[in-house]
């Protein structure tokens, strides 16, 4: 039942992030993203799940948080499992920005995905529907799956991209004091992304680390997963999807 409810919730979320109904109005000045060299994939337990350390620098991560806070987040909730939806409580910004998507893709993801093939198709870029998430103390996203999106013209998303903008040591959190609100200068505790197997056993648990990218296959092969409760600090995430054609 959890998986069925999760699917329904994610479909509903995609409707809420319609490209012609972005949260922001007008142009947003996003941080400059520098190309990264020698990025390495760390695959977790022989799954279609992997991380990339230092995909964003600390300065880039903090700059995205500052830009997002200046725009303002909108709360996202759900009716909950009893209504067939995954439990959800977080804040979100949604923008349609092909230039930002291309910039992030060309900064190193294009090389990491150069040999990836799904059903004979290769990775061509990121979904221009960019989402920024904020989880404060007590907020979480229950068990769900991520649906694949048909973008038209033979283009379809097959991987979720999450880039953690906060997380890690207390020293890093202190360095954010000029950027973030008082509660977020505390070290982030909680907010792990947890993946479950077919028998609901934990396959992997990924703790947020500033600047680290987490990628996992979605659609019909997506593992059930959740964003655990944040118990201290503030968790910020950059979200998009890898497009294949």
Structure description:
The structure is a single chain. The chain has helices at residues 2-16, 58-71, 98-112, 170-175, and strands at 41-43, 49-52, 74-77, 88-96, 117-118, 121-126, 129-135, 140-144, 150-152, 155-164, 189-190, 193-196, 202-206, 213-217, 224-227, 230-232, 235-244. It is α+β, with helices and mostly antiparallel strands. The chain has one domain: q2cbj1_9rhob like domain (Jelly Rolls). The strands form two sheets. It has a 15-stranded antiparallel sheet that branches. Strands 11-16 form a two-stranded antiparallel sheet. The longest helix is centred in the N-terminal third of the chain and has 15 residues, at 2-16.
> DSSP helix count?
4
Q: What helical percentage do the residues reach? A: 10-25%
Number of strands: 17
- What's the CATH topology label? Jelly Rolls
What is the SS-derived class?
alpha+beta
For the termini, the CA-CA separation is 32 Å
For this structure, what is the CATH class?
Mainly Beta
Major sheet attributes: 15 strands, antiparallel
The CATH homologous superfamily name equals q2cbj1_9rhob like domain
How many domains make up the 3D coordinates? 1
Strand content: 35-45%
Mean pLDDT over all positions: 86
Per the principal axes of the C-alpha atoms, what is the gross shape?
globular
Instruction: Give start-end ranges of low-pLDDT stretches.
Output: 1-26, 170-184
CA radius of gyration: 17 Å
Order of helices and strands: HEEHEEHEEEEEEHEEEEEEE
Examine the secondary-structure arrangement and name the CATH architecture: Sandwich
Membrane topology: Single-pass type II membrane protein
Protein name: 2OG-FeII_Oxy_3 domain-containing protein
Domain Prolyl 4-hydroxylase alpha subunit: 47-243
Biased composition (Basic residues): 1-12
């Amino acid at each position: 039942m959890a998986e069925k409810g999760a699917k329904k919730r994610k479909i509903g979320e995609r409707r809420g992030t319609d490209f012609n109904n972005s949260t922001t109005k007008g142009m947003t000045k996003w941080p400059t993203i520098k190309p990264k060299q020698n990025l390495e994939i760390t695959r977790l337990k022989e799954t279609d799940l992997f991380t990339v350390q230092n995909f964003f620098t600390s300065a880039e991560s903090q700059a995205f948080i500052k830009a997002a806070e200046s725009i303002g987040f909108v709360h996202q909730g759900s009716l909950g499992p009893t209504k067939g939806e995954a439990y959800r409580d977080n804040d979100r910004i949604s923008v349609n920005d092909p230039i930002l998507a291309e910039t992030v893709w060309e900064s190193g993801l294009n090389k990491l995905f150069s040999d990836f093939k799904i059903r004979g198709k290769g990775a061509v870029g990121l979904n221009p529907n960019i989402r920024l998430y904020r989880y404060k103390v007590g907020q979480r996203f229950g068990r769900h799956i991520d649906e694949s999106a048909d973008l038209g013209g033979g283009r379809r998303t097959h991987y979720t991209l999450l880039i953690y903008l906060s997380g890690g040591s207390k020293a890093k959190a202190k360095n954010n004091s000029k950027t973030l609100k008082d509660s977020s200068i505390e070290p982030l505790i909680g907010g792990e992304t947890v993946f479950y197997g077919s028998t609901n056993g934990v396959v992997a648990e990924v703790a947020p680390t500033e600047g680290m990218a987490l990628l996992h296959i979605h659609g019909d092969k997506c593992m059930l997963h959740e964003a655990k409760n944040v118990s201290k600090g503030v968790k910020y995430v950059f979200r998009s999807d890898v497009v294949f054609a």
